[in-house]
Design goal:
Blueprint lengths: L1 H17 L10 E4 L2 E2 L1 E4 L6 H18 L4 E3 L7 E5 L3 H5 L12 E6 L2 E5 L18 H12 L14 E2 L4 E2 L5 H12 L3 E2 L7 E2 L6 E2 L4 E4 L5 E6 L8 H9 L6 H4 L9 H4 L2 H6 L6 E2 L2 E2 L14 H18 L3 E3 L36 H18 L4 E6 L17 E6 L8 H17 L5 E7 L10 H11 L5 E6 L13 H16 L5 H13 L3 H14 L7 H18 L3 H12 L1 H10 L8 E6 L24 E2 L1 E2 L16 E7 L4 E9 L23 E7 L4 E7 L5 E8 L2 E3 L7 E6 L3 E9 L5 H4 L16 E11 L2 E6 L15 E5 L1
Parallel strand pairs: 3-4, 3-5, 5-7, 14-21, 17-18, 18-19, 19-20, 20-21, 22-25, 22-35
Antiparallel strand pairs: 1-2, 1-12, 6-7, 6-13, 8-9, 10-11, 15-16, 23-25, 24-34, 25-26, 26-32, 27-28, 27-33, 28-29, 29-30, 31-32, 33-34, 33-35
């Protein structure tokens, strides 16, 4: 313990020295012997965040020293003045903040003053904007008058950006507040976690006046924390923490409208859907007016194009936005099937690795985005637009050499995936490819920091490496940050692990090249006190091994052993409470350990070969050697309970086999042959997609566990009806999930066959859209998928079931019996 607090004192002294303190002012003090020796001076009409900054400084000087500094508009005779924000007094001192943007600030001192200031302009929203939930109809009526059309309002959630409890808008300038927080950090204050449990505040009777002259600019202008469930209201602790981390929504760069999927405001209204159904994509023979509530547009429709221009120009003209998103709706993974769109996808997009196939709709979507951007540049040459690299249009378009100069790109990613160096290298390659396309626009990152309940997914080094690689290239991050709804009752805190990932991110947003090891050593010491060594061991072990904990019980055992040692060392005070956050969070690891203890024993293994695609294979014909060559391995199904061979002498089930290959388009193709001696009496209980009656009749079913999710089910019957469900959604079945799988069936005289395309959406799919796509990446030997291929047949009331990997029971749904699948 003496060594710990000696380290703490050294840390504080080093931080003060970093401000340039030399004692040249003759040991002048802000607080002395626990009493005030200074006053806080703000302008007579301070901005909202200037008042908040003065309150913050007053509060923490009192917490540190016990001294209560007065807040005044004019110096009242105290030996030292601390000027917070611009005022007539800072103007006399020649302290200028012009040219400072994105939360940048100045710190300056003299013989009897310290000035902490930056831009601090109050944000003023432009009407019409929604003031509360009951105000939406008024805003729509006014917006309709402005546009002369039926567009959704891009400001229907504007009220969520204001905190009544703290009296500030997210879009207020925070330069002065950032300066105050930097000064408090120099005194040793840290905010590692929301609320008082996350505070580290030193005890100092004396606070000396530092000698400082600094202008601080962030390495990344955009540092936006986009809290999920903010609509339900965030606790004040979380809002304060966001401010103390120094985030910024970068109003000057991105404006106020939604940063992605901005096209939804054109297609969402019911009036638009009823008047112009032809504006919407034709999927499976139906117009996609209900897709994700906003509808999915047909990008070949001239009417859609003209409406989009009309909407964008209205936003630019009335709200004076610097940039708006032109992205299509979320979950746009299929090509519109109308005559104008047919053939505009790219099944042969050449890109290897985990991003293979993520360019299926790149030309289709980005050519449309480019066209809109070009027209908007003509009418609004001083404004900019953006598109997101995501899902089916993650990869740069092949047919566009350079993007329009006003078009910026947001790349969707998840840094936790970068624990695998090969994945990170692919994203480095992806950025280079997009940078080659950019022609004056900016590059941004859209990130996801969502906790995996129970999994200690620390990623500090991957985060640091990624941010350093992005410095000077990217304008910054929007981080979608998970938080429970305030009304939800959880035994674990969403920030239990994620707070450290986020803290490191926030610090490196300001200085990407700072010493990460020093930052972490300070964290272990200050946050965990007597348990610093044990917590360092737990966190470093978890960071190196958390991906393997999903399959290797030994890694879980070691992590829980280290955490138990840390809890013992921490004691019962504040340090114990902090470790307890992790103990509660990691409780599901014990349950996972129990399940993994059973282990997958003697399960089969399947290999999917890479195969080039030419044309459309999905017609149910497995005799087409262009798609199903003889070299494609055939795997057989066995009786579900006994494990006996099907289709042989004395077998109770007809023979069933499957084949699988990788089409190099981010999808696996399954071909399933179902022998059937009684085709006349097929038990067909569903004829349309999504009809859950399918499970009462004959069907085949694919069960899929990926690297990040367990598990999904996709069923197809002899009528070609497809039903899918997520079996891992909150511990229950979620039939609203859409796999994006498609299937075709052929029926013959002695059996029926199924061809099925099963795409995957990447590790980040759960964050991007949990109701769409298989969350996972390309299965390989190191990180395979676990699957089972099953068949149910009912004749004369008799139930017959078979599976590639028999479960030994009467159910398919034993994920510990799933066999291994990898691509070679």
């Amino acid at each position: 313990m003496p060594r710990i607090f000696a380290f703490y004192r050294i840390t504080i002294i080093a931080a003060i020295l970093a401000l340039g303190h030399t004692g040249a002012f003759g040991l002048q003090f802000i607080a002395r012997d626990g009493k005030p020796n200074a006053e806080i001076v703000i302008t007579e009409k301070p901005a909202r965040l200037t008042k908040l900054a003065a309150r913050e400084l007053q509060t923490y000087i009192r917490k540190i020293s016990g001294a209560e500094l007065a807040v005044t508009n004019a110096p009242g005779g105290a030996p030292v003045q601390v000027y917070v924000g611009k005022s007539a007094y800072t103007d006399k001192l020649g302290l200028d903040t012009s040219g400072l943007k994105y939360g940048a600030f100045r710190m300056a001192s003299g013989t009897n003053y310290l000035a902490l200031l930056g831009p601090d302009k109050d944000f003023v929203p432009i009407e019409p904007w929604v003031h509360d939930r009951k105000d939406r109809e008024r805003v729509l009526q006014e917006w309709d008058k402005i546009t002369g059309d039926k567009f959704a309002s891009p400001y229907s959630h504007q009220y969520r950006r204001y905190s009544a409890s703290l009296d500030f808008w997210e879009d207020d300038d925070a330069g002065t507040l950032n300066a105050v927080h930097e000064f408090l950090r120099s005194l040793g204050v840290r905010w590692y976690f929301p609320g008082e449990i996350g505070e580290v505040v030193p005890k100092l009777e004396n606070i000396e006046l530092p000698q400082v002259e600094r202008t601080v600019r962030p390495d990344f202008p955009l540092r936006y924390l986009q809290w999920v469930y903010k609509s339900a209201g965030l606790p004040e602790d979380d809002l304060w923490w966001s401010l103390r981390l120094g985030g910024s929504g970068s109003l000057e760069l991105l404006g106020l409208t939604q940063t992605c999927h901005g096209m939804k405001f054109v297609t969402t209204r019911d009036e638009m859907k009823k008047e112009h159904p032809e504006y919407y994509a034709l999927w499976n023979g139906k117009r996609a007016t209900d897709h994700r509530e906003c509808g999915a547009p047909c990008l070949s429709s001239e009417g859609v194009f003209q409406e989009h221009l009309k909407y964008a120009r209205a936003v630019f003209d009335h709200y004076r936005e610097p940039l708006i998103s032109l992205d299509v709706c979320d979950g746009y993974s299929r090509l519109c099937g109308c005559d104008l769109c047919r053939g505009k996808d790219d099944k042969n997009y050449e890109w290897s690795g985990n991003l293979a196939g993520r360019g299926l709709l790149s030309d289709y979507i980005w050519e449309y985005t480019q066209r809109v951007a070009r027209e908007l540049q003509k009418s609004h040459p001083d404004r900019r637009v953006s598109g997101i690299a995501y899902g089916s249009h993650m990869l740069p378009p092949e047919k566009i050499a350079k993007l329009n100069p006003n078009l910026s790109v947001l790349i969707n990613q998840r840094r936790s995936n970068f624990h695998d160096p090969a994945v990170w290298e692919e994203y480095i390659k992806l950025r280079k490819a997009w940078l080659e396309k950019l022609n004056g626009g900016d590059l941004f990152i859209f990130e996801h920091y969502s906790p995996n309940e129970g999994l200690p997914d620390y990623n500090m080094r991957a985060i640091a490496a990624d941010l350093r690689s992005l410095k000077g290239i990217s304008k910054g991050d929007t981080v979608e940050l998970f938080h429970h709804r305030p009304t939800d009752k959880f035994a674990w805190h969403a920030m239990a692990v994620m707070h450290l990932n986020l803290y490191v991110t926030a610090r490196l947003w300001w200085d990407a090249n700072q010493d990460l090891d020093a930052l972490l050593e300070e964290y272990y010491t200050l946050f965990y006190g007597p348990a610093r060594g044990q917590m360092k061991a737990f966190i470093e072990f978890s960071e190196a091994n958390w991906p393997g904990m999903t399959t290797q019980p030994g890694l879980i055992d070691r992590a829980l052993e280290l955490l138990k040692a840390a809890r013992t060392a921490a004691g019962d005070g504040i340090y114990g409470q902090r470790v307890d956050l992790l103990v509660a969070y990691c409780e599901p690891l014990r349950q996972l350990r129990s399940r993994l203890g059973k282990e997958r024993v003697d399960v089969p293994q399947a290999r999917a070969l890479e195969q080039s695609m030419k044309g459309e294979p999905l017609d149910g014909n497995l005799d087409n050697e262009a798609y199903w060559p003889k070299k494609t391995r055939v795997y057989r199904l066995y009786d579900l309970e006994s494990g006996k061979t099907t289709g042989g002498s004395g077998s109770i089930n007809p023979r069933t086999t499957f084949q699988v290959f990788h089409g190099r388009d981010n999808a696996l193709y399954f071909g399933i042959r179902c022998a059937e001696p009684d085709m006349v009496n097929l038990n067909i209980t569903a004829t349309r997609n999504g009809d859950t009656n399918i499970w009462a009749g004959d069907y085949i079913e694919l069960l899929v566990e990926t690297q990040v999710h367990s598990y999904y089910r996709i069923a197809v019957n002899p009528a070609g009806a497809l039903v899918d469900a997520d079996m891992g959604a909150g511990g229950g079945v979620n039939p609203d999930w859409d796999s994006s799988a498609v299937a075709a069936v052929q029926r013959g005289t002695s059996g029926w066959t199924v061809e099925m395309r099963v795409p995957w959406a990447g590790d980040d799919a759960r964050d991007a859209d949990p109701l769409l796509g298989i969350a996972g990446r390309k299965p390989g030997l190191k990180y395979p998928w676990f699957i089972n291929v099953c068949r149910q047949r009912i004749r004369n009331g008799k139930l017959e079931r078979s599976a590639w990997s028999p479960t030994g029971t009467n159910t398919f749904y034993d994920d510990m019996k799933f066999g291994e699948l990898y691509i070679k």
